[in-house]
Amino acid sequence: MESRHRIRVGDASGMSDVATDAVDLVVTSPPYPMIEMWDEQFACQSESVAAALEDGDGERAFEAMHECLHSVWREVARVLAPGGVAAVVVGDATRTLDGRYRVYPNHARVIDAFEALDFDPLPNVLWRKPTNAASKFLGSGMVPPNAYVTLEHEYVLLFRNGGSRREFEPGATRRYESAYFWEERNRWFSDVWTDVQGARQRRDDGRVDDGEGAPPADGPQHGDDPPTVGGNDDGPGAEGDDGPPTAGGDDGPGGVVAADVASSHGHDAPTERDRTGAYPFEIPYRLVCMHSVYGDTVLDPFLGTGTTTLAAMVAGRDSVGYEIDPEILSTLGERVEGVPGLSRRVVSDRLDAHRRFVRSARADGTTFDYEATHYDFPVRTRQEREIRFRVVEDVTERPDGYRVRYEPAGE
């Protein structure tokens, strides 16, 4: 089995080399409007954004930034096949402009945009990033009333293109071989994800610090060890206590930490201009496994450092990625070199986790009625019997991206 991965440097509002209805799944996390680290990029794309920011008009800047995103969403509607799913990871923003502190609900604006393009919203996921911070709220510390809750969650918004689900021929081999385990389904299809930590990316020295190892196996079930995947990024605002009240008696944002609050992709404060907006490998990998099958094409119109491409490679899907900033994309080649090892760790962890699940379930008195066709373990449901994993054998660079070859795993 092989997969192909095309990389494009350019604006995804004009994906002219992607045919209409040629994509099966979209997995992306765009720059978050009203997060200060993305102001310059939005301002370069839109004079309206630049003017609104210059005027300190947050509401106008917010709408103008989302109009930039909407031009990409229109192209997504064109290239995504009927019944295909778009998964958008986005967080809200908090910011003080012209002396006014407020939240900018990016998730709501993205939902409105997709509904306007005739997508059907599906139940979404709250990704709650774990934090070890002892102090993590904004405002007046222990003194009411001017403290504010911290944004510790982001949204995984899911939309279907059109009203009909994708259809497959009866007994489609590639669909059943792409099955996930029963216990994975129970964890992945929960509406709150607390087992995925944020990721870090640095741009100053060109090196990556992302903590993106194999995804957690099946979570802490039946005595399993707790998941250990992901970086240790508590996200912006996670340690946002601005200490004692500021002079003048107004303790709210606008004093010590006002402009330093950001929620995008687990970013730290936007004063760290060398950071990009990476999300952890587990998120796109999980979404690719949940909403596509072997041989499908996955699109990321905001590719960044290429995490969606890596997830598609490991999952055995084709991919297309667009990134407007070649500097951000420059680390992808280095990351791709590690894909064979990452693939083996991911698959090994999933197989080992299922075996642990079987042992624990049997110890609790659970019986299994089905045996896996390609492996030496039972499964809970008929639909899991043909599950079959592939691992990356090698990756070859091509003029337009990469080709990946696979071999069967663990049989």
Automatic annotation (TrEMBL):
PROSITE patterns xrefs: N4_MTASE
Compositional bias ranges of the Basic and acidic residues kind: 201-210, 265-276
GO biological process, one term: DNA restriction-modification system
A GO molecular-function descriptor: site-specific DNA-methyltransferase (cytosine-N4-specific) activity
E.C. code: 2.1.1.113
Ranges where the DNA methylase N-4/N-6 domain occurs: 23-330
Top enzyme class: transferase
Sequence intervals crossing the membrane: none
Region (Disordered): 200-276
Reaction catalyzed: a 2'-deoxycytidine in DNA + S-adenosyl-L-methionine = an N(4)-methyl-2'-deoxycytidine in DNA + S-adenosyl-L-homocysteine + H(+)
Keywords, comma-separated and alphabetical: DNA-binding, Methyltransferase, Restriction system, S-adenosyl-L-methionine, Transferase
Family (UniProt): Belongs to the N(4)/N(6)-methyltransferase family. N(4) subfamily.
Protein name per the record: Type II methyltransferase
Provenance organism: Halobellus litoreus
Highest classification ranks of the organism: Archaea, Methanobacteriati, Methanobacteriota, Stenosarchaea group, Halobacteria
